[in-house]
Protein: SCP2 domain-containing protein
Amino acid sequence: MPIYQSDSQLYASFQELFGIIERHDPKASDALLKASLAITFVCSAPAAAITINARKAPVQLLYGATNLQPTIEVGLTADTLHCLLLGEMRLSKAIGADLVTLKGPVWKTMSLADLFHYAQQFYPGVLQAHGLPTTCPGLSRE
Structure:
């Protein structure tokens, strides 16, 4: 059974997560702005899309379908994204196991490191606030 039962549940959790990151460190998106990066996470189970548009300040977060052409598109299940943000799965392992597909200049994903660090720090609290599991279901640990 997937962690997120609907796209609206996933969007609500991520809106809260990004809000916490922004309040904690307003400069958390600086690396993305320096890379002039737009990245879209295209999730399945449930179907959802989250786009971070950092081509110019302020960084925009877009939920759902958009006409924006991302620099990088990341395809994965919502459960895989969940496990990555919990730190229970490494991105390299997820890519090697074909759990994540990347389209675009992959080297630019390095600018996501700070954002992922913050997300891993605050994500469990967001899950708890939404009554969601704080463990990684069905995916093996590294």
Q: What stands out?
A: The longest helix spans residues 7-24. The first strand starts at residue 37 and ends at 44. Residues 49 and 65 are 6 Å apart (CA to CA). The domain at 7-129 is CATH 3.30.1050.10 (Nonspecific Lipid-transfer Protein; Chain A).
